[in-house]
Amino acid sequence: MIWRVFTLLICCFAVQSSTAGSLSWVSQERWVSVKHVIDGDTFTTRRGEKVRLLGINTPETRHDTSPAQPLGNEAKTLLKRLIDGQQVRLGFDKEKKDKYGRTLAHVYLRDGLWVNADMVRQGLAHVYTFVPNTYAAEKLQRIEQEAIQHKRNMWSHPRWKVLEVDALDKSLLGQFRLVQASVSKVSRKRFRFQLGKLEVTIPRKYREGFKPDDFPHVGDKVLVRGRLRMSNKNKWFLSIHDKSDMAHIK
């Protein structure tokens, strides 16, 4: 009798362990049904969950009194064509929710198409990553470079095209832009480098993610991404948060 009880307990433990493992695996990816596409990078599911496509950003559609940004409606149309009314698979990075309570996910169709990457590939989204969700940043960046080279959609529009440092003017303040130039000065100790009149800084809270080899050298041509700002001394600066916010240009 004792042996029977012992055997039963072992079996129960084995089943529980197996189930726990399965649940743990399933929780990393899951399927949802798309109900409504809000804009080019956000949609809701039939269960009321709001999902934000991870690692990218698309031009805004019209909100209240704010008009749509150039190509905002086109980005929404593309996402709608890709996922509207379908079941899609959500894949996650380290943080699954943003401060607005939206689920952050990479989205895949049943045929395996990576929707986030396809939006970038077609030039209707740019790479937009936040630490610690940087797992796919370099892959998306390579896809973005191809779209830039072919000047697809937003990359041929004045509002979105890659800027040269000499083209910076005050009408661009506050915009998230991609800027390219040759490195004129590097200060590894201060975690910053200079692209002509634009100083690129790394805020203290993100410095652990940068190694000495990640910094460019004087003369390197690089592309950086971030929000354009101006200091109290009327100096242009842009902050990067991850090494994927900078790319060397051949």
What does this structure look like?
- The structure is a single chain.
- The protein is 23% helix and 28% strand.
- By secondary structure, the chain is of the alpha+beta class.
- It has two domains: 29-62 and 69-135, OB fold (Dihydrolipoamide Acetyltransferase, E2P) (Beta Barrel), CATH 2.40.50; 162-248, OB fold (Dihydrolipoamide Acetyltransferase, E2P), CATH 2.40.50.140.
- It has a five-stranded mixed β-barrel. It has a five-stranded mixed sheet with strand order 10-11-12-15-14, with no helix packed on it. A four-stranded mixed sheet has the order 8-9-13-16, with no helix packed on it.
- Mean pLDDT is 90; it is low at 2-27.
User: What is the number of strand segments?
Assistant: 16
Report the β-strand fraction as a percent range: 25-35%
Low-confidence stretches are 2-27
CATH level-3 fold name of the largest domain: OB fold (Dihydrolipoamide Acetyltransferase, E2P)
Based on helices, strands and strand pairing, what is the structural class? alpha+beta
Mean pLDDT: 90
Put simply, the count of helices is 4
Distance between the termini: 76 Å
Tally of individual domains: 2
The gyration radius over C-alpha positions equals 22 Å
Helix % is: 10-25%
